[in-house]
Amino acid sequence: MTLSTSNVDVERAQREQHERRMPGDAGRPLSQSRGVMRTARIVSTALVALWFALPFLPLVLWSFANSWSAPDLLPMSVGTDGLTAAIANGAVAAFGDSLLLSLIVAAIATPVGAMAARALSRHRLPFGRLVSVLLFSPVLLPPFAAVLGINVVLLRAWVPPELGVTLVLVVVAIPYTTFSMRVAYAAYDDGFDEAARTLGATSRFALWRIHLPLIAPALARSAFLAFLVGWSDYLVTLVVGGGQLVTLPLIIASSASGIGNESSVAVLSLSAVIPPLILLGFVSRARNLNPGRQ
Amino acid sequence: MTSELMTSAITLTAVTKAYSAAAPAALQGVNLDILPGTSTAIVGPSGSGKSTILRIIAGLEDANGGRVRLAGRDVTALLPEERGIAMVFQRPLLFPHLTVLDNVAFADRAAGLSRAQARERAREHLELVHMAEFGGRSPNSLSGGQQQRVAVARALAAKPSVLLLDEPFSALDSGLKDEMHAMIGDIRAAVNPTILFVTHDRDEASALAERIVVLQNGQLLQHDTVDHVFHRPASLAVARLLGGKNAFAGVLEDGVHHSAIGAVAIDAHFSSGPATLVFRHEAVTASLRLSDSRADVSALTARHTDAAACHRLGPRELHGVVTAAVQRGPRRELLVRVGDADVHTEAAPGNLLSIGDPVSVNLPCEALWTVPA
User: Fold this and answer.
1) pLDDT score of B89
2) Which residues of chain B have a CB within 8 Å of the CB of A213?
3) In this predicted structure, what is the pLDDT of residue B238?
4) B184 at interface of A, judged by CB pairs closer than 8 A
5) Residue B124 structural domain
6) What is the CATH number of the domain that holds B155?
7) Chain A interface, mutation test: which of B57, B81, B148, most A Cβ atoms within 10 Å?
8) Fewest beta carbons less than 10 Å away: which of A129, A265, B125, B244?
9) Is residue B214 part of a domain?
10) Amino acid B268: pLDDT
11) Residue B315: its pLDDT value, please?
12) To probe the interface with B, which of A198, A208, A211, A212 has the most B CB atoms within 10 Å?
């Protein structure tokens, strides 16, 4: 009896794995559009792409425009006046503060969200449904009402504004991290942890060597959402921070409210758009990362 | 008592498990003793508590009551990693972010060995399952059968005192299953672990195990040798669960069973009273009765004599007519009408029997057994 399996079998298995399609997968006859619908699909895709991309065009042009007035179609002179003005406005410090704030929010909200998601999806919690609703309340409540109330509480409790902003933003971010981790845990097979434990791994060893590597892509997506909460916040930073914490959105808003500094606003806006795009690139790469694959 | 506990690889004492107060108990006071170096199959219908037993032994579930001992050591309160067991699940559950080799090296890494040492030992275990050349691959690139081989190697690398297998080959096709069974034989010859496995496949149970545990509704019905659970079932339920098709309620008097198929002498020391006659359809054969084309429903050559002298009675024959025939591979299963009863048999080799044929059914002495009515 031959028990060893030839390479041919392996290649066949790999091919089958690759070719295996589930109902509803892309490329199935039912999910392919034909004729008029195909044209409609292509046109609508192009329109949506244009809708998303078009606003960035004047932004890019304005960033390098030293002067640009109507009715000219393109900037009259190109230069770095906008950049200089933005830096003079404190853009570098604001960028640093925004980055630090967003990273801290992500660093706290991601593990908390992951633990909440795991508890909600794996354990029968007392009042589990109520806990789920409470977790989502920061998303449901009108932010103005909540933030203005909290503002007073934090002031009375002598909480430093930087800490106050972080605390509130973490609360705002947790629903997002919890939700995205719940989706991940719905697809996660607890059997991996069980297998690890029966092989002699302590809970800590199994957590670091098996559990975390397997949910890492989901954690990255979750952290990205939490980062965005911190990165794009204006209201909480303004009201709770009380002007002590000046982040990029605050500078953009104050610059945009003035007249004649369109070019500096464009530079600031671009610097606000680029970091999330870079992170998005990393996150989408992480999804396909499989260290075991040779 | 103590010495008995010391010699057993696995001892369950009055183990009870209920997943919730509302649901019926998954296990009801199960007692079980497994000797070291043996292979034991747990069979039973789905929901009978088969997997629950394994999970309680592994420490993946807590029992509500009772004790679990492994090699005499009470492990009831220990965590899975402290029990010295390893488990192979229905799904291979290979860690997708590790190579095949590092999957097998996992237990040694968890035990604190260096990466190089763990990999060296992992190679030996991959060889044991004939997967040595696949060490550098990703688990995702392997077929289902290959993945399950690696899962077995990974479990063996943990040097378990007890290897638990939870329907490990049920997802594989029959050819692969045969390969896996051969592999388990190789492993037993090489390292001889105590094996306890769950299966819903009676053929697999008898191919891999010396002993079979029969479970139903969380209760242990019988724990005996393969031959005994098939041919000497403890109850009608066991006979039915293991695919026994012939059961005839009746009365046993002085070693002769009287039922709808007539009087049949039994070679066993059963006390008289109500009893159900059982025998495997695979163990009895029907052949064409040329002497008499008319089915004689009352003709019965089983003669009433001393029960202990079953063998001296000569052939026991039932006469009847074939009412249904199904070909199963090389075998032909028949339903034969005898009196008011239906007897399941197989056609004797060379007998191309079909519906309506008059046949005589030969009942070998060894095939006959009775269970409490």
Assistant:
1) 95
2) 97
3) 95
4) no
5) 2-231
6) 3.40.50.300
7) B81
8) A129
9) yes
10) 63
11) 58
12) A198
Tens-digit pLDDT profile for residues B19-62: 888 888 899 999 999 999 999 999 999 889 999 999 999 999 99
User: A288 to chain B, minimum CA–CA distance in Å?
Assistant: 11
ipTM of the complex: 0.84
Can you tell me whether residue B165 is helix, strand or coil?
strand
Work out the mean pLDDT of chain A and round it to a whole number: 84
Q: Which of B187, B203, B231 is the last residue of a domain?
A: B231
Residues of A in contact with B60 (CB under 8 A): 194, 197-198
Chain A residues within an 8 Å CB radius of B138 = 290, 292-294
DSSP category for residue B300: B
On whether both B226 and B253 belong to a single domain, the answer is: no
Inter-chain residue contact A17 with B179, CB threshold 8 Å: no
- pLDDT tier at B291, thresholds 50, 70, 90: low
In terms of pLDDT, which residue wins out, A91 or A9?
A91
What lies within 8 Å, CB to CB, of B132 at 6+ separation is: B123, B126
Average pLDDT over residues A160-186: 92
The Cβ of residue B78 has, within 10 Å, a number of other Cβ atoms equal to 14
Q: Tell if the CB–CB gap between A17 and B158 is shorter than 8 Å.
A: no
Alpha-carbon torsion (A159, A163, A169, A174), positive or negative: negative
The answer to the question of residue B238 being in a domain is no
Selected residues 186-215 of chain A with any CB under 8 Å from a CB in chain B: 189, 191-192, 194-203, 205, 209-210, 213-214
**Beta strand pairing call for B219-225 and B211-216:** antiparallel
> CATH number, domain at B343?
2.40.50.140
Question: Nearest CA of chain B to the CA of A26: how many Å?
Answer: 21
CATH number for the region A93-288 comes to 1.10.3720.10
Residue B5 has pLDDT above 60, yes or no: no
Distance in Å, alpha carbon of B203 to nearest chain A alpha carbon? 20
Query: Is B96 in contact with A292 (CB distance < 8 Å)?
Result: yes
Query: What is the number of structural domains in chain B?
Result: 2
Q: Residue B116 — pLDDT band, cuts 50, 70, 90?
A: very high
Question: Strand, helix or coil at B11?
Answer: strand
Look at residue B80 and tell me if it is in a domain: yes
On whether any CB of chain B is under 8 Å from the CB of A288, the answer is no
Is the pLDDT at A259 greater than 60? The verdict is: yes
- The verdict on B200 and B294 lying in the same domain is no
Find where tokens 């009942």 sit.
Answer: B363
Whether residue B143 and residue A202 make contact (CB cut-off 8 A), yes or no, is no
- List Cα–Cα distances, B204 to A89, A196, A270, B177, B265, in angstroms: 77, 27, 66, 9, 33
The label of the residue with tokens 């059914």 reads: B361
Is residue B239 in some structural domain? no
Which positions in chain B touch A294 (Cβ < 8 Å)? 99, 136-138, 141
Strands B273-279, B246-253: parallel, antiparallel or unpaired by DSSP? antiparallel
Inspect the interface and report whether the beta carbons of A200 and B89 lie closer than 8 Å. no
Q: Please give the residue that has the higher pLDDT: either A219 or B25.
A: A219
Q: What residues 110-139 of chain B have any CB closer than 8 A to a CB of chain A?
A: 110-111, 130-131, 133-134, 136-139
pLDDT tens by residue, A14-53: 566 555 555 666 666 777 778 888 899 999 999 999 999 8
> Nearest CA to B64 among B32, B16, B119, B108?
B16
